[in-house]
Amino acid sequence: xxxxxxxxxxxxxxxxxxxxxxxxxxxxxxxxxxxxxxxxxxxxxxxxxxxxxxxxxxxxxxxxxxxxxxxxxxxxxxxxxxxxxxxxxxxxxxxxxxxxxxxxxxxxxxxxxxxxxxxxxxxxxxxxxxxxxxxxxxxxxxxxxxxxxxxxxxxxxxxxxxxxxxxxxxxxxxxxxxxxxxxxxxxxxxxxxxxxxxxxxxxxxxxxxxxxxxxxxxxxxxxxxxxxxxxxxxxxxxxxxxxxxxxxxxxxxxxxxxxxxxxxxxxxxxxx
Length: 272
Description:
This protein has about 270 residues and is an alpha+beta fold. The chain has nine helices and eleven strands. An eleven-stranded mixed β-sheet has the order 1-2-3-4-11-5-10-9-8-7-6, sandwiched between helices. The longest helix is centred in the middle third of the chain and has 17 residues, at about 145-160. It is globular and about 60 Å long.
């Protein structure tokens, strides 16, 4: 999704950096924040973290997330000691497209990749709202899964409306769209593989392999030299697919959440 965020310091001019996440806050109906502290010494984080968390709004539920390099165990320990919990580990991967390793030698005529049209939008929104279950917002039991579904629907619709490249995989036998791939250009010759999904009825077929490979070939045709993406380790089938296509791992990051219900909800829970 194409969004921008601004970050503030805590204390004022202090070491902690945090940003309000308006799109998630609007979607869930309570504040979301991103905390950036991965480059700080653990003792510096520990000195200020509790005070910052207590400064957040208490009349509503509140969620904070922080992405920490997997190797930064000491930082993760400080966060978990203050109520954070790990929800997902992702890997950043990349592929110089000249090194693409095709899996399928011939694209079947029954399936074709083509640019998305306005008429496809309802269908790809439906696929986006039902295809995901392993990401951090779905696995966190403090968050309603239907909101996470809606977030992906909004993601793909926004990307299309902004004019970013979106392709669909179509079954030519019946004209049915069975998957989509959303891309974002991050540099003149670099493309980010932002979001992809296959209809649940086709997820255990070769359709996914065909769509991923065909999309990368399309990127080559358009003159891109590097493909990048971030993928959850929960989604092992897609991780394995990317590795087979020639991708390499650049880094790994663990995302942690901190969630606090609204004060009135917390009070009711404590009375039970």
